[in-house]
Here is the input.
Amino acid sequence: MDPKASLTAPNAIREMIRAGDYSGPTNGFVPGFTQCNIVILPKAYAFDFQKYCQNNHDCCPLLATSVNDGEYHVNALGSNIDIRTDVPKYRVLRDGQLVDEVTDIEKLWRDDFVTFALASYVAFDYVLHTFGFDHTTSSPAHTLPMYISNIPSEPVGPFKGNKVVCLRPMDTQEIIRAIQAGSISRVPHGIPVHFGNPADIGINNLQKPNFGDPIFIPDNKQPVFWTTSLTAHLAITRAAPELCIINSPQHMLVTDRPDMDLLIQ
Amino acid sequence: MDPKASLTAPNAIREMIRAGDYSGPTNGFVPGFTQCNIVILPKAYAFDFQKYCQNNHDCCPLLATSVNDGEYHVNALGSNIDIRTDVPKYRVLRDGQLVDEVTDIEKLWRDDFVTFALASYVAFDYVLHTFGFDHTTSSPAHTLPMYISNIPSEPVGPFKGNKVVCLRPMDTQEIIRAIQAGSISRVPHGIPVHFGNPADIGINNLQKPNFGDPIFIPDNKQPVFWTTSLTAHLAITRAAPELCIINSPQHMLVTDRPDMDLLIQ
Here is the structure.
């Protein structure tokens, strides 16, 4: 299969991953189509986790949940998705600890698994691009620096923790336009939680992100922070369910849903 | 007439003004109904001025123009408006110089007059209020400080000049919410042109506004700037038409149009 041709359609990407031909990061694949962070939990945790996403929809925008227990399709995001094989790399957590990283989870699958798909911040990168932002400000092909802020999420059952935020450097005019783009597009992760002094939200060293890569901030720009769905991953680590499967960072589910169609509910 | 009862409807306010019972500022009257700055020009200037408003619609949002030359009704803004009497106070400019301030202009009226009505920044104050901003941040009853910035408007014929901006002090979270409110409501003057260092747009002393009153800026807030329709008044002063009539500052036409219905075209 020619990887370049495969970049044209989300289902071609998923086929390539399902066949075991690709297990790398999905950044920059099929721009304009939503990529999702995946959380797979035993049914016992499903209600609390769903409510956690609902109560923290700014950081955990839940796009889809599997309909029946043990179902490995997620038809709301694409007709032929098999969530056991269509993510390039999975992390297996037991009691909140990473115990394995694998390229498929067919052998681990259980009849009581529930799948949750959360929109990635990458959707807003695409929106910024359509609003005329250039790739030095925002690029779907790069991983933004991410930080654990001191802004608490709203706890539900065992799920709690601070919000994980990503950083894009912007000047004053870009901040104004970016908030307009987020407001008009209503895309998840579109409205910043903070800009200016990082210490205001508990971030003391921009050069040491908790996830992703550091970014250069020119003198005429300031750091602007948006939530990311890693907030959910952090909450799961703290909740420490007996078993949980998530995607490896930047190794996401590529869906058939256009980014511009992701209305915030 | 009981002035308190009259605050309930725009046409009651206009009747009171028309009868000569009130000639003061209109700030705070009938919150939620649009107040307009008025420009009345001889037909010879009408095309250029209309084009100036169109090309600078961010600062000069033209809501209505009289339909026929010499017509003193503005039906688009209210069915019984008589623009010769319904503004509490008018300024008469000859060759760009203020020569008189009067409470009606019936004797000055000419068959070649064209009336222009521009939405005031007050509409966005009402929107901010509906979005939960309190009156310490923004109040339709107060006059904001206004400054002549160094941002040029786009010149058309004799009309040119820098943009006049108003200032509201806001903290980071308020700036984010205000831009959302402006984007979602699409109300005129809803998107700021700048925030942060006033010197970036040529404003060197916040305590000395060119129009309006100075405002206190608490330590946790920064100045945020939006355009105002006074930009048009400034351009007219510079164009110096042989005759022009405008409303006195803060003495505006109270219309029947709801602020929330003022979609930017």
